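Quick one, T. Sequence first:
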Amino acid sequence: MKKIETQGITYIEPLEGSTDWYWGTDYTSGDLYEAEELFKQGHPIHQNRLVFVHYPDGKTIQPLIAEDGQYFGRPICCDSRICILMVDFPNGKIKILQFDDALKRKLSLTELSLSAVEDCYNLMLKTSPLMLTRHSNNKFQILWPEKVEFDVENTESFDFRIGEDLYFSAWYEDPEYREEAILRTMDKGKITDRIPGSITVMPDGQMWIIGCRPHWKLVTDSSLNGNDTF
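Structure tokens:
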């Protein structure tokens, strides 16, 4: 049994886009949006800590230490580089930082004004390519590196982008519970397809749709066995 020293952080989860990194934080002031609310109300923000644990050796790295008023969002891995979202509330800045795959070298990526967003609710890094997105009140936004905005259904959530296609997940109770993957265009968010099933992003970045119904044709390629469908 390995003992992993994380200085009090007791929960880690797979880093999206990576097969060998896990991450954890202590949420000392809640999530990013809750920390913003505390700041707006004049309360001090106790900055959170962000740790990464490498599998299988269990090596723990804390690549950045936040200063007073700074807070980390959810990290992600894109193109074999670990990307960290940090908001500096006193200075009104959103920072996206990038590290090499060993977390040894910092590559400053971009800095945005905090005034560019209504608030930090569901402010997240997504792929691919790397994007800063926000989803609130039935409205989806890409804030960087492009600017995109359109309305979505009230149970939709954004998963990932492939080229000019945006993939969302949605759930319904009509009356039975079901889920769909919704494919929208990049420019105006027009729905071009609905696929029954649940989207799952695997640790290495693969996108799976779980539980799809006969919306797909059977693949008869000899390299696949009889249980493989698409």
